[in-house]
Amino acid sequence: MILFGILPWLFASTMSGRRYEVELPWRRDLVLRYRGWRRAGWVLVAAGPVMALVGASAGVERAGFLVWLSVLGLATVVVTEWRHASASGCRRRASSS
Length: 97
Hints:
With 97 residues, the chain is mostly helical. The chain has 3 helices and no strands. Helix 2 runs antiparallel to helix 3 (68-87). Helices cover 66% and strands 0% of the residues.
């Protein structure tokens, strides 16, 4: 970690003499909304198996159906990441080889 992380950073920071101000094209409210949806998606991913286990231990019929909460959560995370990437202009460009 020292060889490939800290030492190159020290070398690069000593060689760069200019300071740059970077203005990101994101608004704070959009970032907070993105984080909220992403967090909600991961909570659903984690809650699916937990709810299925709780339902199965309580003797609920078709408790395995609650695993679909994980699928819903995963879909929420994927859609959120896709929307965030397309809104911020982060597109993968095709390499010309």
